[in-house]
């Protein structure tokens, strides 16, 4: 009996009820978005031969009950957020491929040639959760919307300004007088004129 729900974009926690399928031979939940921990009583699935939970967001320790799966031949827990020591003894000792556990930076054990630094003091590192990832994605969406609004709003505002100026003779005169005054002030500041220049106001026709 096989359950293969891989690559279905499933999310949430793995339901404990799945461990009631005691005659299940293959369980594949890989490449989804599952969070939370591996069900502690997964060892009740005594007939399980293949278990693939890779490429999810599972956290916490690897349940010691996995050692009760005497028929387990293929195991893949890679690329999750699992922490703590790899359980020792019984069935898991027959699975000696380190790639089973790769991609879990806070997982340790003799198979990975990594001593657990928290074995002596009982400390377990804190890792980011799916909620923090969701907040990050929401922030990125807000920033993207801000940049889009700026890109659209600037040319629209500029067009409105030029329309207001060039559809009125009086506004055109005021605009070019202002430009003339600002230009002269800048030229005086940088020393272009040897002495301050008095600018006479004169009416221009455009």
CATH class term of the largest domain: Alpha Beta
Give the percentage of residues in beta strands.
5-15%
Number of helices: 2
Q: Mean pLDDT score, rounded? A: 76
Task: Classify the fold: give the CATH topology of the largest domain.
Answer: Leucine-rich repeat, LRR (right-handed beta-alpha superhelix)
How are helices and strands ordered from N to C? EEEEEEEEEHH
Do you know the CATH architecture of the largest domain? Answer: Alpha-Beta Horseshoe
Structural class category: alpha/beta
Q: Which value, in Å, is the CA radius of gyration?
A: 34 Å
Biggest sheet, spatial arrangement of strands: 1-3-5-7
Number of domains: 2
**DSSP summary, beta strand count:** 9
Subcellular location: Membrane
Organism: Momordica charantia (Bitter gourd)
GO cellular component, one term: membrane
InterPro entries: Leu-rich_rpt, LRR_dom_sf, RLP23-like
């Amino acid at each position: 009996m096989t359950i293969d729900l891989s690559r279905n974009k499933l999310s949430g926690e793995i339901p404990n009820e799945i461990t009631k399928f005691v005659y299940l031979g293959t369980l594949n939940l890989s490449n989804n978005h599952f969070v939370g921990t591996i069900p502690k009583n997964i060892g009740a699935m005594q007939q399980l031969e293949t278990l693939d939970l890779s490429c999810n967001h599972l956290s916490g320790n690897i349940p010691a009950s996995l050692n009760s799966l005497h028929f387990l031949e293929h195991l893949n827990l890679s690329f999750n957020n699992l922490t703590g020591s790899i359980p020792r003894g019984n069935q898991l000792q027959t699975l000696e491929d380190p790639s089973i556990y790769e991609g879990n930076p806070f997982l340790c054990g003799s198979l990975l040639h990594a001593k657990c630094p928290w074995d002596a003091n009982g400390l377990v590192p804190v890792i980011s959760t799916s909620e923090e990832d969701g907040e990050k994605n929401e922030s990125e969406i807000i920033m993207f919307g801000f940049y889009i609004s700026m890109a659209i709003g600037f040319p629209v505002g500029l067009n409105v300004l030029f329309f207001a100026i060039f559809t009125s003779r009086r506004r055109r005169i005021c605009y070019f007088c202002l430009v003339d005054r600002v230009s002269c002030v800048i030229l005086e500041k940088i020393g272009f004129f040897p002495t301050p220049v008095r600018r006479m106001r004169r009416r221009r026709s455009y």
